[in-house]
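user: can you give me the structure for this one chain? tokens are fine.
assistant: on it. calling the predictor now.
[tool input]
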Amino acid sequence: MPNLHFLTALILFIVIGIKAQELKSYSDFSNEDIFKIDGRTKLLPNAVELIGSASSVSFIASGKSVVINCKSATDAYGFIEVSLNGNYIDRYKISAAGETEIEIDLKEDSSNHVQIFKATEAPNGGLLLTTINAEKLLTYNDTSSLEMEFIGDSITCGYGAATEEIPCGSGAEWYDQHTAYYAYGSRIARAMNANYTLSSFSGMGMYRNWNDEDQFVMPDVYQTINLDGNKKDLWKPKKQPAIVSICLGTNDLSTGDGTKKRLPFSKEKFTKNYINFVKLVYKRYPKAKVVLLNSPMVSGEKNDILVSCLQEVKNSFEETHDIVIFQFKDINPKGCGSHPNIEDHEKMAIQMIPKYKKLLIRK
């Protein structure tokens, strides 16, 4: 008489084997018929590196589930965020050691739109998607023709916004509350069915950063793919954005940590660098509509100074370009380090979306 335990184990082995055989591994991310890649990314042999905040890979899958294999490109952990059919699934920690495997249940008998976003930012190190395992990946038909880019600092990155899972001050790393998916720029792009890039870096300023006077600033690093100033590795976007949104100035106006020497804010340096930076943007994207934002983290006299600087920038282009200034209203940031939290980013996006839609129809 056959051993019952042996038969049970054999059946389980066969079932598991069949299930494993049902999944096909996809690692050729250069296949544009299957994979859609957005943001600051780099194609590698059998992998794609997610570099910038909200850089993403999208695909259409069918079957019971899809398995995502991802690993850190450095010795530090990171986070990705996954959405399924337009609905946010979760934020996943990507280990600093070995590959992290994430299984997402799909809706059977239908095509499923899966999107994978980098939650953290460029200075946190790249995250490598190595394989997508699915029963089948279908042809990806991109319905988005609109391109947008959001340039900024920690606010644009979504720093300190995801506070429910890991409360402020309780994480192991400063980026534990990052959520680029829920940042205002990502929200605006989704609402407008746009492809988009977040060119953002925490602490970054237009002429000086949060706590220093002489390090690289956004104009120095913007054209490099990793936002690190390495001019041997430049960023060359495939498409031209219709709208370029710039939210910088919070760190230029900052007093820093209160310990390191901080010079008074120089309106002249800030405005000069800003004008030159906008010239650079127009050189890259001649037809883009540019929006200059104030900051939800700056108020009172400092906000007046910031807005007056933005007005000078706008005025310097009045004969050649139609630049728009946008000011946030009634945003009282409740995230980590007085940054906007998820709800604040939603309020910011709600205020901005109508303005951006109107901008597209302006001549």
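assistant: here you go. Residues 158 and 329 are 19 Å apart (CA to CA). The chain is about 25% helix and 25% strand.
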